[in-house]
Every structure is written in structure tokens, then in C-alpha cells.
Design goal:
Helices cover about 65% and strands about 5% of the residues. With about 300 residues, the chain is mainly alpha-helical. The chain has two domains: about 70 residues; about 190 residues, f41 fragment of flagellin, N-terminal domain (Up-down Bundle), CATH 1.20.1330. The protein is rod-shaped and about 120 Å long. The N terminus is likely disordered.
Length: about 300
């Protein structure tokens, strides 16, 4: 006797088919995306933990990006400050050589070159902004170009246009560093000594040729001043180096933290691809089985046994 299907059997088969299709969609999504779910709802009770971790990860990434940019800026500052220090040391050597030989023939030519090197260093830019201008990053911090620009009635303070806002940077949630230096603080000691030499030459006489006792005495005084200026630049460069080291250490710590957070978040979000593939295959088999049962029920329906009118 042929079996007659019922609505209950159809309902059961359809429910199984729908469940298998949902399982297939879920498994297929996991296989293609590599994630357990596509929204927070899919992570159930772990959603709050996941949200908190993602927030910390976002903040860590922001600090890491900022620290990497800062490291590059500090490297450029180191180069510029080293150039300034070299200019001061060269000026010191030029004066020492003139005193040792008793002749200042090449002195002013050398000091002019040192002045130009110092100005170039203090007007260094990074990403289109002046490093030593304080908050006025679009304004050249040193306007002087030669020794004559320092001569009276000019003032050393008048050749600097930077403000007094030394840059600070927050490198993590707990640490803020002073990372900026100001042109007038770095350059004033050297420029003051060079100004004195230029004024002396214009008022007393050129250093070109054998030095008089008065010239020797004057240059000896300025030598000490320039040596002190060079020492000050060296100290500032060393401070910048310490900041560089602290930022590099921070970058390493943030990178490790980011790696750890990525792993912890992955433990929540990442699908087990092997298991997901197995689930997909199982769901597909269940769909085929349900479809086959549905077709069998359909063919055994009472309707198929009724004569066609």
C-alpha cells in the first residue's frame, strides 16, 4: 500500500532543510572570512570582552603610528643639531688655529661658512614644517643669512622668529615627552659670539693678516664663549638622543602589545577553518538528504494518486 504524506512530515523535513541551509551559510561564511561571525551579536557573551580589546587595540595602533612618525622626526632633529654642533666646533677650531699661528687671514671666511651652516641647521624642515620654530612651524625660525646680518645695530634676538612653544608628544597612555627644541635656545650662544667678532672687526679692524695683541686677547675671550656654545649644542643633541631611545623602546613595547592583542582577539574571532570546513561539508550533506526526503514525500503524496480529471 502506498504511503500518504502528511503536513507534519512536510513540516519536519522543511525544518531540517532550513536548519541545514542556515548551518551551511554559517560554515561557508566562516570558511570564506576566517571569522566566527560577522557582527558582535555572533560572538554572544564574548562581545563585551571583544569590544574592550578592540578599543585598546585601536588606541595602541594610534600611539604606535604616532611614535613611528616621532622617531623619524627625532632622527632629523639629531642630524640638524649635529650640523649645528659641527659648525660651532669648526668656528672654535678656526679661532684656535688663528691664535696658534698668530694670523687671521682665513678666519672670517671660515666663520662666515660656519654661520651659514648654523642657519641651515636651525632652519631644517621635516614634512614641510620647521623643526625648531616652536608652534610657528610654517615660519622660518632664523632670518639671518650672513655675519653682516648680526652686526650692530642688529640684535641676536632679532634674527630669531620662533615662539617659545617647545613641542611635546604623548607616546603612550601614561607618558608625555618634550620632543621639540627652539632655534633661539640652540643658536643664541653661538650667534652672540659671532656677532661680537663681526662688530669687533668692523669697529677695530680686519683680522686679515697678523693678529695684534688686542685681537688675540679678544679672540681668546670669544674662543671660550664659542666652546661653551658647542658644549651646549652637544648637550641638547644628547638629550634628543635619550628621547630617541625612549621612543624606540616605546615602539618595541607597543608592537609587542599590539601582537598580543591581535592574538587574544583572534582567539575570540578567528574560526577553526578545519572544523568550519567539516561543518560545511556536513551541512551540505544534510541539505541533500533533506531535499531527497522532501522529494520522496512529494512523490508519495495522495495528490499523485488521484486521477486526473
Amino acid at each position: 500500500m502506498d504511503r500518504v504524506s502528511t503536513s507534519g512530515l512536510y513540516g519536519s523535513v522543511l525544518a531540517n532543510l532550513t536548519s541545514a541551509q542556515n548551518a551551511e551559510v554559517s560554515a561557508s561564511t566562516q570558511v570564506s572570512s576566517g571569522k566566527k561571525a560577522t557582527d558582535l551579536k555572533g560572538f554572544g557573551g564574548a562581545s563585551q570582552t571583544l569590544t574592550a580589546m578592540q578599543s585598546v587595540q585601536s588606541q595602541t595602533t594610534s600611539f604606535l603610528d604616532q611614535s613611528n612618525l616621532l622617531a623619524n622626526k627625532l632622527t632629523m632633529q639629531d642630524t640638524a643639531m649635529s650640523q649645528l654642533g659641527t659648525a660651532a666646533q669648526s668656528a672654535s677650531k678656526a679661532i684656535s688655529d688663528a691664535l696658534a699661528s698668530g694670523d687671521g687671514t682665513a678666519l672670517m671666511q671660515t666663520l662666515t661658512g660656519n654661520m651659514q651652516d648654523a642657519v641651515t641647521a636651525l632652519n631644517t624642515t621635516y614634512n614641510g614644517e620647521y623643526l625648531f620654530a616652536g608652534g610657528q612651524v610654517n615660519t622660518k625660525p632664523v632670518t639671518a643669512q650672513s655675519l653682516s646680518d648680526l652686526a650692530s645695530p642688529a640684535t641676536v634676538a632679532g634674527v630669531f622668529t620662533n615662539d617659545q612653544h617647545a613641542a611635546t608628544s604623548q607616546i603612550n597612555s601614561n607618558t608625555t615627552l618634550q620632543t621639540g627644541f627652539l632655534a633661539n635656545q640652540l643658536g643664541t650662544p653661538l650667534f652672540s659670539a659671532l656677532q661680537s667678532i663681526e662688530n669687533f672687526q668692523q669697529s677695530v679692524g680686519s683680522f686679515d693678516g697678523p693678529l695684534s695683541e688686542a685681537q688675540k686677547t679678544f679672540l681668546q675671550t670669544q674662543l671660550s664663549t664659542i666652546q661653551s656654545a658647542a658644549t651646549g649644542v652637544t648637550a641638547a643633541t644628547a638629550q634628543n638622543g635619550l628621547t630617541q631611545k625612549q621612543v624606540d623602546t616605546n615602539v618595541t613595547a607597543l608592537t609587542d602589545q599590539q601582537t598580543s592583542l591581535t592574538g587574544l582577539i583572534g582567539n575570540i574571532t578567528d574560526a577553526d577553518l578545519a572544523q568550519a570546513s567539516t561543518n560545511l561539508a556536513t551541512a551540505q550533506q544534510a541539505i541533500q538528504a533533506s531535499a531527497q526526503v522532501f522529494q520522496t514525500l512529494k512523490s508519495s503524496s495522495l495528490v499523485s494518486l488521484l486521477p486526473i480529471a
